[in-house]
Amino acid sequence: MSQLLSRRALQRSLGALATTQSATARVARRISLPCAAQAGRCMSSSRKPSFKGQMLESITARMEREKKELAAAARERESRKGHNAAVTVFVLGASIVAFYCGYKYPRDVAPESTLPLSATRPPNHNVAPKELEAAWADFVAIVGQDNVSTVESVLLSHADSDWSTHTRPDSEPTPFCVVYPATTEEVSEIMKVCHARRIPVTGYSGGTSLEGHFAPTRGGICVDFGRMDKVLALHKDDLDVVVQPAVGWELLNEQLAEQGLFFPPDPGPGAMIGGMIGTGCSGTNAYRYGTMREWVLSLTVVLADGTVIKTRQRPRKSSAGYDLTKLFIGSEGTLGLVTEATLKVTVRPATTSVAVCSFGTIRQAADCVGRVVGSGVPVAAVEILDDEMMRCINRAGQTARTWQEAPTLFFKFAGTDKGVREQVDMVKQMARASGSTGFDFARGADEQLELWSARKEALWSTMAVRKDGDRVWTGDVAVPISRLPDIIEETKRDVKESGLYGTIVGHVGDGNFHAILLYGPGEKHIAEEVVHRMVKRAVEMEGTVTGEHGVGLVKRDYLPHELGVSTVDAMRKV
Questions:
Q1: Residue 411 is part of which domain span?
Q2: What share of the chain is helix, strand, coil (3-state, %, to 5)?
Q3: Which stretches are transmembrane (predicted)?
Q4: Tell me: the pLDDT tens digits for 187-219?
């Protein structure tokens, strides 16, 4: 009825006939008129339906279409009535499952900016024999069977070392196997396997760590970079070089010397670039040239899931994004495995020399360091060895000469011939003013090697005089230069009172020194207490718990004392 009324109203408004049928018929007749062109003569225009007729047709069609749409919607509603119960049951079941999963498996990373230790859960590793054996087959497929070792002596050598301060207990596991990749791609594939199987990974390059960095406390596998020992590219004009992680700094400098270049960081003998990056180490040249952090331009890193990233390109400076290069330096393998490094190098000085001067007391020697640093004399290095260390070097007999057994400073000089002579003269005067009892300087290359040999043999000389069953504990701290005499004196006194045999050696130009302790069976707790007090002194003097050795297993508990709990929590969040 309502449709009929609306149609009549429309017809009245258009002036149409009283019935829809007649109007429609008239429109149809108009539309069906033949075109004159079909009869052989083209007419100037064809007859079209009137505007009123076109409007009626359009509205009628729309009303029919809407009627069909309403009918279809009604049918769809009827069909859905039977599914409502099923949908309700599904939604309820999914909600229960989601709640259970959220309760049973909470988020690994909390939304806060820091991550307290109390909020963490033990890593969900899988070191079941069946899983490790399956992974072994994967590793063989990646690097070949000859490059996957399960030999017991190899596993032990990748779990502990004679000079590490971390003593491996019998309960601590060794790696299940040692894998030797040769390329970044192989490292990536290895990490993908370990990530999928939840197998812990420990990186290994030179194995000269002093703080237990490569001890596999969670088992798993060890990735040894021994096959990745190549210098990939030298850009002499740009003063940079691209190397793999198992390149030793000594071998690198031998090759660079042929081009008149050198790489300044010089830690202990045997150290390799991968470990040097991992610990952010330095060496005797740190006073003038800085630490490893100042000499790395870019890194290629394989992340935990096998993703390969390059931290930046080769320009000397860049303000593009985060400085990921420095984030990885000092991360000790916790963020990824370094497979390539682009290092800065510099031109070898035209002239170098070495000087050695002895003092009556350790404070006199430390005071001399303060004078030299305060004067601005650009010496290349300043090292200190105490009287016990000099005595130890003589007993070991690893050098060509016999040394005065007194606190001794070792200086390196570099520059022009005239500049080096001026530096030597100024340091000699300051040494005398501080109470030196002797001053020798090298006049040739051979004499330089002879004078510097005592410094390089310090650790090995201490190890050479160990008694059967003795272990060595080498700890380092760093303090502001002005506090150096105090902490060295107090530490020497503490070592003597403990009853242990200990020596002092350090890169005192930047306030960093090492205490090397020998302890026998049953004396480890005494050594721990001595080191603990030394670290505590350094922190109280606004220093650091480690100047260059890195944190490792031995010093991780000291970090909150130096940096604060929130800072360590922020590191954990990263």
A1: 351-543
A2: 45, 15, 35
A3: none
A4: 999 999 999 999 999 999 998 888 888 888 889
